[in-house]
Amino acid sequence: MSKKQKGQTRVCVYPDWCKGCGLCVAFCPAKVLVLNAFGKAEVAHEDECINCGFCELHCPDFAIAIKPRTRNGAGQPDPRSGWSDPESEHGRASPPEPTPEPNPNPEE
Amino acid sequence: MADVTQLIHDYLRHNKKFPHVFCAGCGHGIVLGSLIRSVHALGLPKDDVVLVAGIGCSGRMAVYVDFNTVHTTHGRALTFATGIKMANPKLKVICVMGDGDAMSIGGNHLIHAARRNIGVTALILNNQIYGMTGGQCSSATPQGDISMTTPFGSLEKAFDIVDMCMAAGASYVARGTSFHAIQLDRLISSAIMHPGFSVVEVFSPCPTQYGRKNKFRNAVDMYKWLKSNTVKVETLKEPDQKPADGRIPIGVFRDVEEPGLEERYFELQRKLMGQNR
Amino acid sequence: MAVQRKKRKRRELFALGNEAVAEGALLAGCSFYAGYPITPSTEIMEVMANRLPLIEDGVFIQMEDEIASMGATIGASLAGRKAMTATSGPGFALMQEHIGYACMVEAPLVVVNVMRGGPSTGLPTSPAQADVQMARWGTHGDHPIIVLSASNVQECLEMTVTAFNFAEKYRTPVILLLDEVTAHTREKITVPDPDEVEILSRVTPTVPPEWFKPYADTARGVPAMAPIGSGYRTHVTGLTHDVMGYPTQRPDEVKDAMLRLFRKIDQYYGDIQMADEYMLDDADVAVVAYGSVARSAYLAVEQARERGAKAGLLTLKTLFPFPRPAVEKLTHRCHTVVVPEMNMGQMSREVKRVNNGRTKVRTINRVDGQIITPSEILKAIL
């Protein structure tokens, strides 16, 4: 676990995969996450995140990703999520073309 | 903690529908994540990992992950795993079973797999209930607990999976919980690398079928219970004794290096064929 | 099995039917056996226990029960082995769930059932033919299956090879039914040279892994099979699955999957159904028999011919899918069909169904653990 300093990370929740069990909300030591009106986890106080990784390890639905706040490499917004980096100059970074998966059913 | 989730996503089958089938707060997803991290940390190629699952909630785990996966019949996952391991000993065979799967209908196969020390990892996801069929009492449901088939409280004692596997001769026996995910990663990794039969029992809460009937208000309560009612076995003064306060010991209970059945078999075969030449 | 008459490395053995089964299995390339001892099939297991550790990659394992034996056999089959298990009545009953699983996931394997008296523990050391319909319909759900039988020791060997070939060719479990008499008769047999026997193996994928559909429909209806660990990571499930092997409940996909299971057997019906005809060209009375009873029937037909009766014999080697054309031909030509069997009429039911009231069907049934003697059959012929 990397050093517990605040404000080093981006917390991103994929709402479509979140089932709202509330584990991340209940156990987050820095109270970063809350359950929103739809019953799903939402990032409320991202700057409080101490990068402990609990939510990422314990999300049963693989719906939370913690990423370092850097512009290059791992910090790139995930094009598969609806998450965008608000500090990015271009707003939503243009997602790289995902490698086309072979269509398992060409007839469809 | 960067990229834990991204890593898991890389091991999932992208043509399967997500979120997965498990209920909100079900511990099985956490165990699946832990399993993926363990396999990744060990550097095992996906092609060499076989995930054999039984029937029930835990059985549905196999379809989501991009290994060689076999979803077998109820309770018999270990028999398939034995066949696969003997047929191709190079494969890392991991058997995912529930408590009903491993202890009730498949109890015989579990004790025999332990006895013959076949080089298979048994991951027993103990949610103390039959979840998929709607919350009936299992052989791991604690005495006095309520289920659909024990509406007035269970009269039978629950199986202690660790005790039984130790008695049956398994060479690696451990217990973890889906709350203690980092420890679980460690337990599963060492179980996979263990040469003989390895068992990891995982307490994996079932909020929907077990929790609701047994005074847990929600999933979070169950994880809080796991947090306060477990104790690391290495911190116990008498590791052989059950803690007097009723807490559940977790950690590694036995780790003995013994060659697995497949190693002994092919060793014998080499010897025999050498004689014949 | 095409046996050419060339001088080759043949071996002659004085073997039990059970031993011949083991010889046949090894000849067909069986390299995995998982079993549990049960009378009267145990000798198959004993021979395999002695022989498999001596051949390259041969695996023998004794499991804790028949359920486990069948599970391990399927596991080995999925991992690319030619696998077999053998059992008798009570054990066969335990295996039924996994036979259904093998049908569903299309695992090629061979199950030998040496039939003994039943139900339940019954007559462990006496012959019967009472598992015929269980072999066909024992597991739950609608499914096609291939059931073969053998009537003498040489045939035990040959039919075991055939069973493996069918299993591999059609990706299906094949059941070989013997009865206690055939299994425990000791006779001289010839084990052919491996070069002179046609041995088939399953079709493996011919496309890169990303393009592989594990349950795709093909012209033959039999999809290619990738062994576990070969780089083709597939999902195998007993749930009804789509062409990718993933569970589905969509009616169209379920229908396609189920109909293909049937079609892959049905369209090769002519290849699968096997029956031996003896003196049937001019026969008025035909005996339809299988297993050890066919040998009694053979003598009865000879004796009947000596007495001037025009009798003939149809020995069924394939029991299911039922060899309808061969039996139908008889019912058009003969005035009587005699069906002797060591049960209360499990195959005569099939014969009557095909006969459709055209001729007289006389049944001889014994369930007292004794064989049907030639004189009993002769009496029914005359």
UniProtKB/TrEMBL annotation, chain A:
Keyword Metal-binding among record annotations: yes
Ranges of biased composition (kind: Pro residues): 95-108
An example molecular function term from Gene Ontology annotations: 4 iron, 4 sulfur cluster binding
InterPro entries, per database record: 4Fe4S_Fe-S-bd, 4Fe4S_Fe_S_CS, Fe-S_Ferredoxin
Keyword 4Fe-4S: yes
Keywords from the UniProt entry: 4Fe-4S, Iron, Iron-sulfur, Metal-binding
Transmembrane feature ranges: none
Ranges in coiled-coil conformation: none
Domain 4Fe-4S ferredoxin-type: 9-38, 39-69
Disordered as annotated region, ranges: 69-108
Protein name, entry field: 4Fe-4S ferredoxin iron-sulfur binding domain protein
